[in-house]
Amino acid sequence: MRRTCLFPHSTKEVFMKEREKAKTLLDQLYAMESSPDYVLSSPEAAVIQLLPFRKKKTENFVVLFVDNKNRMICKKVVAKGTVDQIPVFPREIIRHAILKQASGIILGHNHPGGASEPSKQDRELTSKIKRIAMELGIRVLDHIIICDSGHFSFQENGYL
């Protein structure tokens, strides 16, 4: 049985080249994200890890877990919400940090509405998580809010 190609010969070649480029970029991204030496040394380095969430239509709360040299251990979505709110449980964040043997965490979430400024609830939640984490020897390095138009770092703006 003869197979018919959906693409003319030249289009198929272009498609294959573009697919190979995309695969190479993805391989580089995966290598960067899973590298044990990927140090989150600035808010911008953390923002790179949160970029996939900036265009989400609902809020996602993400935690970046780091070791004592701020090398990323892993990234985990700990809660998903609606367009304007998200149920976040500090005990779940701390539980994951302990299980991952993380000595620090970077909190992050997206604002689908487009404004990166933190709400009163964002500030209160960050304070609560920081207080609980400090009691257990876990550092809260930053809380980053990301949206289409930019980001807000609690650390850069003196909120931590």
From TrEMBL:
Domain MPN intervals: 38-160
Keywords, in A-Z order: Hydrolase, Metal-binding, Metalloprotease, Protease, Zinc
PROSITE patterns documented for this protein: MPN
Secreted as UniProt keyword: no
One example GO MF annotation: metallopeptidase activity
The organism's place on the tree of life at top rank: Bacteria
GO biological process: proteolysis
InterPro entries tied to this protein: MPN, RadC_JAB, UPF0758
NCBIfam families: radc (TIGR00608)
Record PANTHER family: DNA REPAIR PROTEIN RADC, UPF0758 PROTEIN YEES-RELATED
Record's protein name: DNA repair protein RadC
UniProt organism field: Desulfonatronospira thiodismutans ASO3-1
